[in-house]
Amino acid sequence: MTTLSQASSVSMRAEQTRLERRYAHLGLLLIAPTVLIFSAVIVYPLISAIYMSLFSIFTPTLEGKWVGVDNYVQLLSASEFWWSLLNNLIWTVGTLTLQIVFGIGMALVLHQNIWFRSLARSLILFPYFISTVVAVLVWKWLFNDLYGILNHLMMSAGLIDMPIDYLGDMPNAMISVILVGAWKYFPFVVIAVLARLQSIPDQLYEAAKIDGAGAVARFFDVTLPQLREVLVVIVMLRAIWDFKEFDLIFLLTGGGPIISTQTLPLMVYKEAFALNQLGMASAYAVVMMAIMLFFMIVYIRKTREKSA
Amino acid sequence: MMRRTVFNICAWIVILIVAFPLFWMVVTSLKPQSELFSRPPTFLPATLTLEHYAKLLWETNFLSYFRNSIILSVMTTVVVVGVATLGAFSLVRFKFRGRETLAFLVLFTYLLPSVVLILPLYLMLVRLGLSNTIFSLVIAYTTFALPYALWLLRSFMAGIPEDIESAALVDGASRMEAFRDVILPQLLPGIISTALFTFILSWNEYLYALVLVNSDDTRPLTTGVMNMLISSFNIEWSLLMAASVMMSVPLIIAFAFLQSYLTRGFGAGGVKG
Amino acid sequence: MTNSRSKTPNLTRRGALKGLAVGTAAAALPFGAFAQQKQITLRWWSPQGSPAQVEAYKFQIAKFEALNPGIKVVFEASSDEGYAAQLAAAFSSGQVPDIVTHLPSFSVASYYSKGLVEPFDDVIKAIGADDFYPGANDVFKAPDGRYIGTGIGNSAANMLWLRKDLMQKAGITKAPETWDELRAAAQSMQGGGIYGAPLPYGRNSMTSLVFIGFIHQAGGQVFTPDLQVAIDSPETRKALEFYGSMRKLCPPGAANYSWGESLTAFVSGATATGLYAGRVLANVVKQNPSIADQITCVTYPTISKDVAPWTFNDFPSVFIPAQSKNKEAAKAFAAFLFNPEGYIKQLLAAPGHVLPVLKSIGSNPQYLEDPIIKKYNAEVQLMSSAAAGGFNLGYESKKHKSNAKGGEVVASGAIATLVQRVVLNGDNVDAALSDTAKTIEGIMKS
Predict the structure, then answer these.
(1) Domain limits at A114?
(2) How far is B55 from chain A (nearest CA, A)?
(3) With contacts defined as CB-CB under 8 Å, which chain C residues touch A63?
(4) How wide is the angle at C-alpha A166 spanned by C-alphas A160 and A169, nearest 5°?
(5) Do C340 and C358 share a structural domain?
(6) pTM for the full predicted model
(7) Averaged pLDDT score across all residues of chain C
(8) How much is the pLDDT for C9?
């Protein structure tokens, strides 16, 4: 009796491991296209980039000569690199903060039962959907010195006497870029937060109400902790995207005035295509990735610690 | 009641400020060029005209850019969502060696800026005989769309209870049958949401399109419009605004139909790590 | 930048990258073979792609195709800001256009020095070397004595455009010839929503190119004739000082101006003077006809009457990339571009903007009959003579050696940065100039 059941359980286990192995194979098969595409379009170019960063290369001919880590040495001692990094951080922190704060605020508003709610939602989400090219064109037109409506409105309201140069002066240019970035991307935060808000159980609010918590207290005691998880992810995603944003800044100011809004991605582009120094450009790109990787690991560590 | 009204009015003022650039874009596109140069600017057009739209449609390459953008975005979306759905299924529901590493690598690919990949990628596409084709852009776009789609779908997938799949397996279905019959329907909001995001990303991309494609036959809207209308010889704002409006039309349509999916989809999976 | 290294050419490992790419090349061969066809297709790039011009190009293409069955020509528009990146990608991959037009001569020189451009001597011969205005091809002569391309036209990019009505109103009787007169005139015409001038202070190539003109108008130079960097000079300081003093006479957005904005500002009537080439004529006639009878142009003023005007001519070019697989067809087509009927059509797509390089065209009645050319005959004549004696950074004076790095110096934005630092930021002039000189020296050595 015992031997029989033992035997059957052994065979069952054998059956199970066979199934498991088959499943593992199927799993590998399903992920294979992803891995293939990743290797071809991401890993290979990435390795080339690292390899290229050790050469001095003239972009149009791709003629290169080995310079070892010279590019890196030069780069780290160039003040333009540090300025670009600083701009990159100012831009990222500035626009990200606005996106998060304004995004949460707007999500709370849209979560309420306001008039024409679905129209309101569409209008709010729209900036995220239009292309950066369109957003930049529209804002450049609003900012226009001679015919722009913004200058006109501010002048007729008596706020300013002369048209303001929104994109060619500092700190205006950085502020404008940050604002346009926030305008363009805050709806992403709205979408994600709104979705999460809808799944917070009403009981939590009722319990808080019974405890005598006001609206503000309810936000900090109930809403925010519930949003924490989703915010952790959004902040990381948006931080990464903002850090490597190219189109918006390139099209809006091109990095100017001087290099006041030049971030690292613009620097890479300039080295590669204006100065034709592909090797140097790759070095910039590699350093940029290293910086992002560093921030990401720190961020993941910190947020894990807190939630644990 | 009073408080409600005040809240509503304040909320709508903010909403209208956010939407103002879009309103202004439409208004400008309807003004004749001469009116743009009037100072102070007219708030509503003194004369309404559709000449800019007509000009774009009949006298320029706009429609061919438009067609390219549609083909490009649809192809990218199909490829990326297809591959990512299978990949996410595998990453969430199968156990094999290297799974965790793979998941981390997906995250890492996020960090790669387009400017880094662009030249090696271009060389590769040329070697494959694909340069200057829409397909080359599809390949290029997977570099940023696939990691994102995989990430999104992975969290959606994780939100589907395992028991329903197990139940199907007990009933004798194979893994792939269970995937088709049980998981896919559950995943649909997630797939639609991911598809929408992928579509938007590809519709709006600029840098790859700028460097990788040079012929008017394959250029998408973003670079096509910039190339055609922003030049050293003329800047016609009303034409640009008309182009901007028309570039946004497909997104408005897609959005109008799928808005609920988008928000609901997010709720179902949540944007979880 | 890597100056110690560039002196040791033995270390050079040519084509290090090409090796990297070979791996994928082999796998892809069948595709390439599959695409082979008997029909030859020529790809033609140009950053000058306004709708009227494209129409003229299409006419030329149709004519050429009718005469040469078996050859198809495809026009692909590029842009002033985008062509560098696009060509870089094209050259590095070998997927080059077969013919490129309207790039400034210094860019062609830069590509030629890297072996990317096919010598053009036989095309010039086919067009007829004698028909060119004297000296028109000097700028295209490489150090090795061969021609790297030819001009598809001339342009006088920094003409001073004036409004006669505004001058009259301000009581100005003659066009300014010196900087002081220009500033005074701009000052007195400014007001009532109209600004004095649309000078560019942006971080772009226009600012670099225009300011190079100002350096010369002060009697200075960027390089010495044997190409030593000479930008750090008293003349440049004077130019900076004057350019800075003009800032308050320009619209606030001038800190972002490039060609398009600057042109539109004058054409729309927002500025009393303009700085541009002949396209002003066509745009005014089309977009703001109310001032069409009031505009005229002169060469841009200089610091004093002792310094001769310096006209910036980017010498819009035609060249054939060395990697083109259809060089013979491309050469035939390049020569055909100068066929009177099509060439005149092309020039008249923007009358007065791109000026003819051939004597036979300049006197061709078909060209002269154009209503705009006729109406502004004096202006067109002036621009033609100014452009013929024009220079650019690859060719600063008749004495200068050809400068193959001109393109990179402009693209680096070093000179525009100088303008921005000194004028907009109020940085110390000495520090800014010495930095600029260093940057340019770095580019020359790299």
Answers:
(1) 70-307
(2) 18
(3) 12, 14-17, 114
(4) 100
(5) yes
(6) 0.83
(7) 85
(8) 37
